Structure formats: C-alpha cells, structure tokens
Amino acid sequence: MRLACFVLVLLLARTCLSQPHDAGVVPDDPMDTFLAWVTHHGGYHSPKIKIEDIPSYGRGVMARDDIKEGERIISIPFDLTLSHSNTLKSDLKAVVESLQLSPTNQQAIHLLYEKYKPDSFWKPYIDILPRNFTTSLFFSEEEMGTLQASPLRNFTIRRKESIADQHRVTFSRLFTWWPEFFSSSQHTLSELEWALSAIWSRAFSFSKTNGGLVPLADLFNAVQDRSRTKVRVEVSKDKLEYFANADIDKDTQIFTPYGVFKSLSNAQLLMDYGFVLEDGSTKDNVMIVLDPINPKQDPYIKDRETILDRYDLGYNEFKLEMDNLPHEVRATIRCVLATQEELRETAEDRNEGLYKVISPNNEMLMTRMLLDLLRGHLSRYPTTLEDDETLLANSTDAILSTNTRNAIVVRMGEKRILRKWVSVVESELINLTQAKRKRRRPQQEKQEL
C-alpha cells in the first residue's frame, strides 16, 4: 500500500557522501556518481546538505551548514523520476499496456528492466538503491516468528504468495513474448520482490494519476512528529522541490513527515516501508476474530443471519484501535447470543436494534463473551508486554537485529491495545454484575416479606 502524496521512508542502504562536486567530474563513488547525474540532468541539491550513514536511521540527509527558512534544499525534474508516466514513455509502453497491470506493478517491471539494461538512463540511481529491505517481506523464518500472534505475520505470508503468483503468471508471458527485454535467469521471483519493495517503500504520488520513484528526494528519512519536520514540498508541472520551512541548524538531520493525508499503523509501516515508530503509531491496531456460528447447533441461525444482514454485520473480523472498539463487535455478539424472543423483538425494532442493550441478561452474556475473546487473543502472544519491554531495554543492536527489534515494537503495540480493552471490558462486567445484584435485592426483600 502506498501512502498518498509525498511519502518518504526509512532507507536501508549504508553509503556516505562527502563533499559537493562539479557535475562535469565523473567520480568513482556510486553516491557521487548519482549526484553528478542529478545535477547534469537539471536537478539541484544544496551545498548545505550531505548524505550520511546515521545511527538507528541508516542513510539520511544532514545539514552541512545552517539553512535558513525559505532556502531551496533539492529540486528534481520529473524527467528523472521512475514514474508511471515515464514508464508509458519507455520501451515498455506496449508491454505494460498489453498486460493491463496496476501502476505499481508497471513501475516494478520498468525498474527491473532498467536494472538489467546496460545503457539505462537510470543506472546511477539504481546503483544506489538498497539491495535488501527491512520490510517484513525480507524477514527470515526466525524473524517472522518474533511477530508472534501479530496479524502482520499472515499478511506478510499472503503478500509473498501473491507476488509468487504474479511472477508465475506475468513473467511467464514476459519471457515468452518479449525475450529481448526479459529473461528467466535475471528476472527472478526474488528480483520481483526487490522491485516491488523499492516501489512500496520509496514511491511518491505527484497527482491522482501519476507517481513513482523520485531520485534524491527519497534519501530523506521520515518522522511522525511534524514539529521535527522542517521542509515543505512544492510540486509544479515539471519538478518536485523541497524548501526549508524553518531554520535548520548545522549537523542536524533533515526529516520529512511519513504521511501527509493519513497515518499508518506500525504493522503497515513495517510491511511496506521497513521501519516502525518506537513510541507506537496512533493508527496501531489489532484484529480480533469471532468464531462463525455453527448452523447444526443453532436452530435460529436463519433469524440471526437475517438480522445481521440488515445491520450489515455479516462478517466476523474486527479492527481494534487504542481509542476504538467498534460498536459492530458488541452488536454482532448480542445477536449471536440472543434468545428466540430477543431475536423477535430485535427484528421488530427499526431503530437502534443491535446497537443498544437487548436485555440485561443478554448484555451480561455479551460482555463475558467479549472479555473471553479479548483475553483469548492476548494469550496467543507467548510473551507479556513487560517481557518485551525488558527485552528491548536490556538488549543492544548487537544482540537484536533491526528486524527483530521492529517486530517486537509491533507486537508490543498490539498487546497494549488488547490489554487496554481487557481492562475496560472487565470494568463493564463488574458494573453489570453489581447492577444485577441491585435488581435482585428488592425481589429478595419481597420474598422475605
């Protein structure tokens, strides 16, 4: 999934750039060669920035000198981008159009084509792209296990299976129909995984119909805290530019926001972009799943299904966030546990129906089932939140790989969400139990009289 508009991500390759250089000089260092290529073809990078290998970030952009608000930092002509529009101007126009692929898949195929084209215009850029990524797609089996019960584990497996299917179907055609462009010895499944990861993790959207890889602009690391981002992006019809929107001190890293229009969960960030936010994302979530109704054991299943369909509740997966337990969860469980009489009354209710208390007894049963559901999901994680916190606090980078640390951060966020809602629902159950006792007390007093 690509972020809408100007998404920048953590870069993984580790190379250093030293000094600004003249575009007419052909340097030996790949980064110097790349920057010379950018400048030669109309791009610009301020002499006040430098590319460095930054601890905990990988490659990033640093201020070599103080930068004043309003100063231009970089400028990249769209002709330098590996974008959807440039794919359709390339040798592959007929290829990608005949296959009817999505823009992302078109760009991945274009990237692979240019990677193995000896005289590729984009060779200086492709030469500095990471060879591997820290997205979950590149996790080892052991690192995948570190995700524990996180839904990200299954999402990643499904993504790998989908890419394998795509490679089998699409590239078999490419090898047969366009052997002058593609070969099975070069354009392997692992190469397609690499190309798609490059697109997912680094691509920008310039407009509703165009986007792609933007050389140089994708060297900036991303950060969620907007107060730490000191650049503004301007897009014209022929280029993308970064300007300082505040003074930037010498020897500080220059960040961009990781998303302009929406935030993503840590799981999504790790799957698509290869990094996580250490303190968690506001969009962290965890999926809970209700067991399907067994028609052989439920004589009223047709009535339940009719009511669930009326409320558009014909599904059993729900996304929990720290501040949101969907109303649909409670509504569905109310219907699943309703007696025949309660089902009849709910069917006749044309107002809130399942979204309000059906009966005190049903509400008690629903709350107990919801609590069991939440506890059950939490118990699928072999370690506790405290175990994970201790592990991260006492482990160095030499002990835990970047992928392992990121996986632990993801599962910690999910455990926090589940623990929060377990606590909330436990309190609700206590209140319902106390209310039930109060209702019984007058009845007991009547019987005693």
Structure summary:
The protein has 449 residues and is α+β, with helices and mostly antiparallel strands.
Largest sheet: 4 strands, antiparallel
Helix content: 40-55%
Q: How far is the N terminus from the C terminus? A: 69 Å
Please provide the ordered H/E string of secondary-structure elements.
HEEEEEHHHHHHHEEEEEEHEHEHHHHH
- The tally of strands reads 13
Rg, alpha carbons: 27 Å
Shape, per Cα inertia axes: elongated
Mean pLDDT, nearest integer? 87
Can you describe what's shown?
- The protein is an alpha+beta fold and 449 residues long.
- It contains 15 helices and 13 strands.
- The protein has helices at 30-40, 84-87, 93-99, 103-115, 123-126, 141-146, 151-177, 189-202, 266-272, 301-310, 327-337, 340-348, 360-379, 385-394, 402-448, and strands spanning 44-45, 49-54, 58-63, 72-77, 82-83, 204-205, 211-213, 221-223, 231-235, 239-244, 255-257, 285-289, 317-321.
- Strands 1-4-10-9 form a four-stranded antiparallel β-sheet, with helices on one face. Strands 5-7-6 form a three-stranded antiparallel β-sheet.
- Helix 11 (327-337) packs across helix 13 (360-379) and helix 13 (360-379) runs antiparallel to helix 15.
- The longest helix has 47 residues, at 402-448.
- The N and C termini lie far apart (69 Å).
